[in-house]
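Following the same procedure, sequence and fold were stored together, as reproduced here.

>
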Amino acid sequence: MRKRKPELLPHAVAEPSWKRTRGAIMKKLLVLVIFLTASMARQSPGLGLHAIFQSGGEDILMLFAPQAGDPVHIVQASFGADNVLLDAHLENKSHNKIQVYRLGWVAVKKDDIRMGRGELVTVPEKVDTTAEFDISANAVPSREDLSRHPAGVVVYVAELQFQDGTKWQADAKKLKKEAIEMLK
């Protein structure tokens, strides 16, 4: 008896293995694109990352100011469930070593705009602050400002002292204007 070659049915044509591999790669790329799109959708252009928390049943939008043109700005931040800034990643565009910094915030509730500042914080000597660095920030913004249930709070770098002795302060008028625009 003679052996017959297995025959494929007309609808079951075998694809070459390179086509199957390419299809699997395309599916993985599609999943990656969807993931990246969803991640980027969380960001607002020019505003940085933000989070929405509830306080007393009302949403509070927590943002950080872009501070374009300023020597240092926040590029990433984490906020706690109580709307207090937990930590932040800062970028130093001046590349001068920072010894002391202070964060501030603008709390906006309709026509009521309140600005506040945290405590001066001395950076440990071993931390390289000439490019990018991480900070922890407690009590920013203040519980008093949060108790007024603002629509949003914008956190920013308020003050710096560099190793060479020079000091810098953020422009309060510019930050108020940016905060109002961000929270419209």
